[in-house]
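Q: Could you predict the 3D structure of Dynamin-type G domain-containing protein?
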Amino acid sequence: MARQSQAHDIFDNPASKIRYEAYSRLQAAAVAFGENLPIPEIVCIGGQSDGKSCLLEAFLGFRFNVKEVEMGTRRPLIVQMVHDPSALEPRCRLQEEDGDDYSAIIPEASIAEAIRERTEVHLRKLGATVSSKPIVMRAEFAYAPNLTLVDTPGFILKARKGEADSTPDDIMAMVKAQCAPPHRLILFLQQSSVEWCSSLWMHIVQEVDPHYTRTVMVASKFDNRLKEFNERWEVDKYFSASGYLPPTVKPFFVALPKDRASGSASSADWRRAIQEVDGGVKQHLRQSITGGFDEERFGARIGFGNLRRFLEEELANRYRDSAPATLALLQERCESVAKELIAADKKLQEAADVVSLRRAAIHYVLNIATKVSSMMEGSPLIDPMHFGWTTEEERSSIAGANWPGVAAVVRPPNAGLRLCGGAAFERCVQEFVEAAKCLEFGVVSRERVANILLAYKGRNGGGVGMAAEELARGAAREVLEPLLNSACTRLGAVVKRAYDIATEQAQLQRGSGYERLRPYVAFHAALRSAFQAFVHALEERCKGILLHHLETATSEYAVGLVAGRKACCDQERDEAGSRGPCACSFCRCAESSTFDEPPSVYDRSEGAAPHSADENEPAMGRPPFAETQQTVPETPSPDVLTVNKPDHLRRAALAAAAGRNVDEDSPGKGRVAKVPRTAMVPPAASAGSAYLNVCHQAARLFGRIRQAVACQAAPATLKSAFLEPVGTQLAAELSVELLGRRDEDFMKLFTAAGVLSALEASRDAMAKRVEGLVRCKNEFQELARCL
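A: Sure. Here are the predicted structure tokens for Dynamin-type G domain-containing protein:
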């Protein structure tokens, strides 16, 4: 009678009822609005066949899930049981998926079908087999306790037909997440026929609650194990679970009616059957076991009625203890959500304010431009492991990233490092220089050389030199121009990558400016287009400067000057004699240049082996003595003076006597213009080696042009043409392009379809959330007065 009176007090105590109603509504609001509140709850876990559904029906006092209609739910089910003496028939409602309102009353026989349909629709929308979003069911009944139970999907070893193979692991992970919050009480069910030491799922409880401080063990289907006991010591040993569970863990032993096939039985029959099973178990222990059992020690933990009373008392105590902290948390959340509502109203008002939008746009544009500029200067705030690319990744992301005319694999320094911004720009410039070094003077056909030589035959000398110059100029234009254009494209892609990194960083930082402008796709598209147009203009400008360098370096005057300076140096050596090498800057540059290698193959059909530039260089030898350096006899003979005269003076004398056809290399009438064209021709070369002489000289001139353009002028031009404008002009260019518009044109960037309606819907949802939390806070304030 004392226990019945205690149970009666639990049901009819006004303070308990107010407390339970307040927590039930708070729980519904938390599920609806996604609030994470420490509400005391009981989570029921166990295997799929351990009797969780039957235990849930026993708590409710009526059956809604008969064996023939399996729910098969893959979502948690929060069952809010409300003890209402006026509800002689169960009144069950399901909470709406996207709100805190409840549906109309659902007949108890249709609840399982409604739960299964909601589960299938939700999982189909997610494209998953398991979801952690719970289904909330409120059940008001005169024979239900004030108890909230979270029923979880049962553990399984193998997925059902049509489910993913990962379903068992997904269920286990989801159940662990449901049990993890410390404010939740864990109700662990296991069939009594399985020993505690052989449990398949005990390790899950040990992971989430290692000391079993909030775990209640339940041995279900106890009537199956009861038949195995004959003597008292066997029963007492099993009840104590010594050696298997910690001494602080006191398991319950529950048996429920097995006849579930008769769907026509009323809820009264179901409740009567539960009481009969409880009474039958205790009667068997008292009468059929030799010596009975230690009823004083274990009697309070046998039967469903004792488990129900224990959970009601435990939950009521937890509600009472956590009420002050919950009220304080509700007040804090109400203030926070109220501020969010004010911000939502402000955002909705500013959505149509052009001044506010201009201010937000200029702030965002300057932020992006600053990020890009700092990246190109070398910002330490960028994570290279997340944003950086290797050389191979950079090439694969750019269409046509191969260097034109270069067949070899170009691997610049630091090719394997993940770089971005200015570091990636510098590595790309180095890669361009390495690619330029791989360019060689191509094979020239004999016919082409012959055509050039014959075209210059009628001129006053210079045939070999002019032919070499023409070939070098044409080859330099042909191979260097595509390479320079490709370098501009590659570097432009590096700068564009910096913009992508800047926008991604803005998304990760989630600043107020980004959140406000995020829905406006047209604005972000216009900003990206403006940036790409800016980079494209830099590419075209840089290409123009580089092509100007190339045209200047390959002009007839410049190439002739290069060849002429070399010839002048040779002549100065002739005149200087033993005074030492020429000290002009051209000779020093030529001697230090590493680009004087000739082409690897000139003409395979001629059988000529490749030669190095030094081997084919005109042999200087020891210059003849000048007249002032000779020892002249007292009576010199004319032959001595004639023989020892410099060779070019001798040729000039012969040319003056015989005319222009005597020596093609002789200067006529004091002109020295033809000296540069012939200075590089080996004097010992025969007439049959003119083809090799032309190719050799052309290769040397090509190397000097390549050195001057690709390795000296181009790197400096690329850096100044890209990096300086990005740092000084980018912000202004983007601001003018986006903000330098009339208000009508500017607002077209902020007229995305559905943005205003989405903002209004968000504001309304926020207002509803504030209203629900304020209502819960007021209820808990009333509850605090009753405690």
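Q: Anything worth pointing out?
A: The longest strand covers residues 184-191.
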